[in-house]
Design goal:
By secondary structure, the chain is an alpha+beta fold. The chain contains eight helices and six strands; from the N terminus they run αααβααβββαββαα. It has one domain: Glutaredoxin (3-Layer(aba) Sandwich). Helix 5 runs parallel beside helix 7 and helix 7 packs across helix 8. It starts with a helix and ends with a helix.
Length: 184
């Protein structure tokens, strides 16, 4: 009995940590930043916070893939912590009539901003540099947490600027293949 007590005590210490790590959190509280709709100010906040860019999740209410992303990927603490560290993350409703200010300081609506960014399907995930230039976009839901974090790493490590053996920029699909080989 004396040997079982220390093991039981150890399990009691480890279990809450394991449960916390696996507990999903509301993406609107732990992933997306509160925004007043001025994207030029969002850039300034990102710069002042030492972020590497702005992540925009283009969505619409009826989109089942957007909901799936929020319920299976964007609600995961690992994803939230990584993205909060590196990006200022916001959401844009592609059907929204809410007035916003774009990255250039021009008045527009969410719907028009999405149209100007050629968003035709949702979710569309776009990364913008600290000058408001889009540097990467991904249309559709990520396959899971790992792929989504790889997407963030692709931007953080500026892999999109690196060249492959043929002199072309390394595409995200190639980066994923390289990451999969590393994890095998």
């Amino acid at each position: 009995m004396a040997k079982k007590l220390p093991i039981f005590a150890l399990l009691l210490c480890i279990l809450p940590t394991f449960l916390y790590a696996a507990t999903p959190r509301d993406p609107y509280q732990h992933f997306f930043e509160q925004t007043l709709g001025d994207l030029s100010e969002e850039l300034e906040i990102a710069r002042e916070s030492g972020k590497q860019g702005v992540f925009v999740f283009f969505e619409m209410d009826e989109c089942p893939f957007c909901h799936r992303m929020k319920q299976t990927v964007l609600n995961q603490p690992e994803v939230q912590d990584f993205f909060r560290q590196h990006f200022h993350s916001i959401t844009i409703d592609i059907e929204g009539d809410i007035e916003i200010v774009d990255f250039d300081g021009q008045d527009t609506t969410q719907k028009e901003f999405a149209r100007q960014n050629r968003v035709r399907a949702t979710p569309l995930m776009a990364f913008y540099d600290l000058q408001g230039k889009r540097i990467f976009k991904y249309t559709g839901a990520a396959s899971g947490v790992q792929e989504f974090i790889w997407m963030g790493e692709y931007i953080v490590n500026q892999v999109y600027l690196q060249k492959d053996d043929s002199g072309r920029n390394i595409r995200f699909t190639r980066f994923k293949q390289m990451k999969k080989k590393q994890t095998l």
